[in-house]
């Protein structure tokens, strides 16, 4: 079999698996998985479709296609995902970094333009947000926490590979690893999907770590805990930035106001959903 024939077979299989949007990206997914299996650039697949394909690599490719057709995230199959122009290693131990989370990075950079500052990323997962901030602000002191040791292992490996090892990774729940320290910025993309939300039953999300998706029956539980605990960890004039669900902006904003935050506002992602809400603590 040549590259073009193998690619067509993978594309057709994904097109037949229409559930969870697998068919919508069948061409791209098939190309990325074949490039991964063959160890060659995706552009070469298109420019050399008559090249012979190694039978063992073809078998590996077809296995990956079947897993993708069953809904497994592409990032888990290739082992990486791009975020903020950084290539991050990912595994089923962490959520797949999503484009909408880049809004959290954008807002942090806007709110803290100073070259120095103390920042904490709470529930860092793959380290995506902390690493993006570290790449943009080399003199910031960045702490990243996560309760899951498997997630911290992924984040630390990403930091080492990207040469951003100055990030201080700490294990623990939310503010627990921070002690009495205070920060200029606190950022978090916490679990915010209710346990009974049908979205959790889709084949894609079913492969991602459940504890990182849902706090349980109360979708706002983690968001509320972060808002209420943040004043003890923020320096005067510091900011709390939270990613949340598309319909949760008003509820998060109300929690921030009740906790004494000011300049509370929400920002829309590229899909026009209110995705990040921020608030400033105390007086400057």
Q: Secondary-structure blueprint of this entry?
A:
Layout: H1 3-16, H2 26-38, H3 42-47, H4 55-69, H5 74-78, E1 80-83, E2 86-89, H6 102-111, E3 118-122, H7 128-136, E4 141-146, H8 149-162, E5 168-171, E6 183-188, H9 221-229, E7 234-243, H10 249-258, E8 262-268, E9 274-280
Parallel strand pairs: 3-4, 3-6, 4-5, 6-7
Antiparallel strand pairs: 1-2, 7-9, 8-9
Helix pairs in contact: 1-2, 1-4, 2-4, 6-7
Characterise the protein shown here.
The chain has two domains: 3-71, Helicase, Ruva Protein, domain 3 (Orthogonal Bundle); 80-280, Rossmann fold, CATH 3.40.50.150. It is built from ten helices and nine strands. The chain has helices at 3-16, 26-38, 42-47, 55-69, 74-78, 102-111, 128-136, 149-162, 221-229, 249-258, and strands spanning 80-83, 86-89, 118-122, 141-146, 168-171, 183-188, 234-243, 262-268, 274-280. The strands form two sheets. The chain has a seven-stranded mixed sheet, with helices on both faces. A two-stranded antiparallel sheet has the order 1-2. Strand 6 (183-188), helix 9 and strand 7 form a beta-alpha-beta unit. Helix 2 (26-38) runs antiparallel to helix 4 (55-69). It is elongated. The model has no long low-confidence stretch (mean pLDDT 92).
């Amino acid at each position: 079999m040549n590259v073009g024939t193998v690619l067509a077979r993978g594309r057709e299989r994904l097109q037949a698996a229409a559930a969870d949007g697998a068919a919508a990206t069948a061409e791209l997914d098939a190309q990325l998985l074949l490039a991964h299996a063959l160890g060659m650039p995706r552009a070469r697949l298109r420019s050399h479709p008559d090249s012979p394909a190694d039978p063992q690599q073809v078998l590996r490719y077809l296995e990956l296609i079947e897993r993708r057709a069953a809904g497994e995230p592409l990032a888990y199959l290739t082992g990486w995902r791009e975020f903020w122009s950084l290539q991050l290693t990912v595994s089923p131990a962490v959520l797949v970094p999503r484009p909408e989370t880049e809004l959290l990075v954008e807002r942090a950079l806007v709110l803290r333009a100073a070259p120095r500052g103390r920042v904490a990323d709470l529930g860092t997962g793959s380290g995506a947000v902390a690493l993006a901030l570290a790449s943009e602000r080399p003199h910031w002191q960045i702490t990243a926490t996560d309760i899951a040791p498997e997630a911290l292992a992924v984040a630390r490996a990403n930091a080492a590979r990207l040469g951003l090892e100055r990030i201080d990774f700490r294990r623990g729940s939310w503010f627990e690893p921070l002690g009495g320290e205070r920060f200029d910025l606190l950022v978090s993309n916490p679990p915010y999907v209710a346990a009974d939300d049908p979205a959790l039953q889709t084949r894609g999300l079913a492969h991602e770590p459940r504890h990182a998706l849902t706090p349980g029956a109360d979708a706002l539980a983690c968001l509320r805990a972060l808002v209420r605990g943040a004043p003890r960890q923020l320096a005067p004039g510091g900011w709390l930035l939270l990613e949340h669900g598309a319909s949760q902006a008003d509820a998060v904003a109300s929690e921030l106001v009740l906790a004494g935050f000011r300049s509370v506002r929400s920002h829309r992602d590229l899909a026009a959903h209110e995705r990040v809400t921020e608030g400033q603590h105390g007086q400057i």
